[in-house]
Each structure stands twice: as structure tokens, then as C-alpha cells.
Amino acid sequence: MNKLSVVEATVVYDARKALQIERRALRIRRFLANRLLVIGSIVIVALCLIALLTPVLGSQTPYEMKTAERLQAPSMAHFFGTDNFGRDVFSRVIYGTRVSLTVGFSVAFLSMLAGALIGLYSAYYKLLDHILMRICDGLLAFPGILLAIALAAALGASMVNVIIALSIICTPEVARVVRSSALVIKEQVYIEALKAQGASSLRIIWLHIAPNVISPLIIQFTFIFATSILIEAALSFLGAGIAPPSPSLGNILYDGKVVIFSAWWMTIFPGLFILLAVLGFNLFGDGLRDFLDPHTNKARK
């Protein structure tokens, strides 16, 4: 009898292990079949590697000025040419990319936390819903870029202040997404059963509602990441973002607009990196939405 039990346990263990391997292989096949997710992942990984290896890739510091070499075209000595102060554009672009990714991640993370708190409690408590959602509606009524300029100008031109300003702008959007998902979950039968059993509101919100809004929250994270990079570049271009001489893709574009016809590389290369970053995160977000919810992909087809 004991031998039979051991054999049965071994068979069950092998079956579970085989099922886990099959599920893992299925996820890998689904990932590789999702072109948007694959392309977005490749772009994001490449940009993250560039940001991490910035001190190694940049042969020169982004602040080193050589006026005798100003406005030189791309060459082996300067891959992306030099700017109007003789600084290496390649070094400035990759350092600016690291700044953009830092701002994008910080804004997405902070707005995700604040938006999740506002959205969850607004969905659960009607009084808070009326107060917090009206504040969010008021913030959403202003064009994002204009509100960002006003906040950044009031706080001052620095990376920390840009992160704070963009987090304030992006939080209402996250809050509305979380609230809409939480309202659907709140009406489920098992939530009513938990209330009938005497479960506390804190337990219901964080143990039973919050885990079910993670998927839309992660997808929103990728889109806010892309939006933050774009708005940060716009603020730096307008002089309300990262202050020179600190490298930012936006202020590199600003320096290049004066010599756009004679030194095209000062505009093309930072613009290309902004395009790749925004496109990569948008593709990743679209692909991730299809990956987490296959029914969405089927509905499109």
C-alpha cells in the first residue's frame, strides 16, 4: 500500500511538472507570436543597456567643450558630430537618454502609486469618489503640456521638479483607469460575501480588489512612461525642464534648432532617440495588453 502511494505521488508530481513546463512553453510561444511585444521589448532593452552603459559608451564627458572642434560633422572621432560648443553630441545624447528614462520611470512609478490609492478608495467610498474624482476632472480639464509648463516654471527647472510636475499631471489618468476596474470588481458576488462575513474594508480593498487591477495598471505604466519622456523633452526644449548644461534630449534639440540647416546631426540624432523611446514603450504597452488579455486581440481581428 505504501509503495502504491509513493508511485501515485510520483506520477502526480511528474504530471504537475510536465504541466508547468507546457504552460511555460505556451507563454513563450505567445510572447514570440506577439510582434508588438517583441519589437517593443527589443527597443526598451536596447535603450536600458545604453542608459546603464553610458559611462562606458561615452568616450568623452557631455560637458567637455572644445571650441576648435565646434559643429563638426559625424566622424569616427565623434559618431554624432559636435555641437556649437564643441561638445560630443553622442555623449550628450546617451546621457540625455539616461535622464529621459530616469524621468519616465520615476513619473510612471509615482503616478501609479498615487493613482492606485486614489482609484481604489474612490471606487470603494462614494464620498471620497465625489471629492477625489472632481479634483482629477479639474486637472484633466487643462491641456497636459500647459499644466506641465506652469508647474515646472513654478517649481523651477530641475529633474526632481520635472518629475513632481509630471507625476501630478499623470496621476488623474491612472486614478480613473484603476477606479473603473475597481468599480466592476466591487460589484462581484464574492465581495458582497466578504462584507456579509464581516471582512474589514482595508482587507477587501488591498487583498481582493487591488490584485485584480494590476493588469490595467501595468499597461498604463508603459504608456505613462512614454508620455513622460515626450513631455520632459518638450519642457527641456522650452527651457522649463532640465536646465543646461545638463544633457537632455530636449535641450539638445533646442541647441540644434539654431543651426538645423548647417548642423542637421544636432537635431536628427536626439529626435531619433526620442522617437525610439516613445515608440518602443507604446508598442510594448499595446503588445502587453494583448498578451495579458487575449480576448482583446481576438476582438480586434
Detailed description of the structure:
This protein is mainly alpha-helical and 301 residues long. It has 2 domains: 32 residues; 267 residues, MetI-like fold, CATH 1.10.3720.10. Helix content is 77%, strand content 0%. α4 runs parallel beside α12, α5 crosses α7 and α10 runs antiparallel to α12. The longest helix has 36 residues. It is flat. The relative contact order is 0.14. The model has no long low-confidence stretch (mean pLDDT 86).
Keywords:
flat; single chain; 2 domains; MetI-like fold; 13 helices; mainly alpha; 301 residues
Major sheet description: none
Written as H for each helix and E for each strand, in order along the chain, the element string is HHHHHHHHHHHHH
> How much of the residues is beta strand, in percent?
under 5%
Number of helices: 13
The CATH class of the largest domain:
Mainly Alpha
Find the CATH topology of the largest domain.
MetI-like fold
CATH-wise, what's the superfamily of the largest domain? MetI-like
As for the number of domains, it is 2
Shape: flat
Query: On the 0-100 scale, what is the average pLDDT?
Result: 86
Amino-to-carboxy terminus distance: 55 Å
Helical residue percent band:
over 70%
